[in-house]
Amino acid sequence: MQSNNKEDQKSYWKIIFSTVVTCALVFGCTDKNNINMKDDTNNMKNELTNKEEQQLVWAVAQERNYVNGERKGVFIGTAWIIKIEKEGPIFVTSYHLVDVDNDRFFPKNSEIKDVSVSLVHISGIIIKIARDDIFPHREKDIAFIFPKIRISNEEVFQVLDGITGNYHVNDLIGKDVYNLGFPLSAQRNEGDKQKNNQYYKRSFSNIIRKQNGKISDCVIEPNIFPKPTKCIHVNYTSEQGFSGGPLLLNENNKVIGIMCSIILQDDGTVSSTSIAVSLEEIYDGLKSIF
Predict the structure, then answer these.
(1) pLDDT for 226-280, tens place per residue?
(2) Distance CA 108, CA 125 (A)
(3) What distance in Å separates the CA atoms of residue 166 and residue 48, rounded to the nearest whole number?
(4) What's phi and psi for 273, nearest 5 deg?
(5) How far apart are CA 154 and CA 110, in angstroms?
(6) Alpha carbon separation from 78 to 19, 81, 93 (Å, rounded)
(7) In sequence order, what are the beta bridge partners of 159?
(8) Nearest to 231, CA basis, from 239, 223, 211
(9) How far is residue 258's CA from residue 246's CA, in Å, rounded to a whole number?
């Protein structure tokens, strides 16, 4: 998840702090003790998912290939399928996860040969993503990924249905919701399995997690993104790795948004509110691009 400090909401790049932390911790780019953020992992509740839920989401994986032949990878976030065209599935995720031009996430130096992004499924399918496959909707921190591949298994390539019909967003306040994703804490608990190119072979059933809570508010956020954005607030703390994952209603398992941000308090602790960009914004972005 991204983080958003209320004291500096007008800076768009402030909300990608948590993803920088994720990459830094896993790749050893920095010392955890030097990060100006208190460890509130115990407040970031998540639980195991069932087999049906595990089929719905894909891990956004970043891999670094070093000049010396070493490879390191980490699941930095989550993606899911919003639509299927004749040429293949269209995935949606958070743009900050696939911003390959941002050197803070995809550094290039004398030791690193190249950095790549893939989508990884529990079935074992790995889709390498090219730059031309990414269609950004930067203003709302949304990205669509259209790799143009043949669908070989309908159970794997499932479209997540969104809420439809005549409803008012304020009617959603108080509704029970859940989100799915690949939190960093679950990856840590699986131990160091990134050596010898084995990081894709981790126990997916233990890494794909869900969080539960209620919708606390539906608002237009004026400052978090470059332009005002329709967002949903939930009453629980999310964490790094859930970015890009779907937010769903418990009552019908329909998608209502995409997880994007956590909020940092003035003292650096994580608040009890997380933010999702509404499904309306996703559909508007999809229509503007495809």
Answers:
(1) 889 999 999 998 888 999 999 999 999 999 999 998 777 778 777 788 999 999 9
(2) 27
(3) 33
(4) -125, 135
(5) 42
(6) 12, 11, 6
(7) 81
(8) 223
(9) 5
Strands 142-145 and 58-66: unpaired
SS3 state of residue 79 = strand
Q: What is the pLDDT of residues 3-19, one digit of tens each?
A: 565 444 333 323 333 33
Class of domain 2-31+49-289: mainly beta
Classified as helix, coil or strand, 111 is coil
**Would you state the structure tokens that stand for residue 250, as one six-digit string?**
């418990």
Question: What is the distance between the alpha carbons of residues 268 and 8, in angstroms, rounded to a whole number?
Answer: 13
**Most distant CA pair in the chain: distance in Å?**
57
What DSSP state is assigned to residue 258?
E
**Rounded (5°) CA angle 251-254-255:** 130
Kindly state the tokens that stand for 35: 């990060």
State pTM to two decimals: 0.80
> Minimal CA–CA distance to 265: which of 96, 46, 38?
38
Cα 212 to its chain centre, rounded Å, is 16
Quick: pLDDT tens for 241-251: 999 999 999 99
CB atoms within 10 A of CB 229: 22
Residue 203 structure tokens: 């126990």
Q: Are 137 and 180 in contact (CB under 8 A)?
A: no
Amino acid in the structure at residue 69: G
CA 268, CA 265: separation in Å to the nearest integer? 5
Helices (H), the chain: 17-27, 51-54, 184-189, 204-207, 279-289
* Residue 46, helix vs strand vs coil: coil
Amino acid at 198: Q
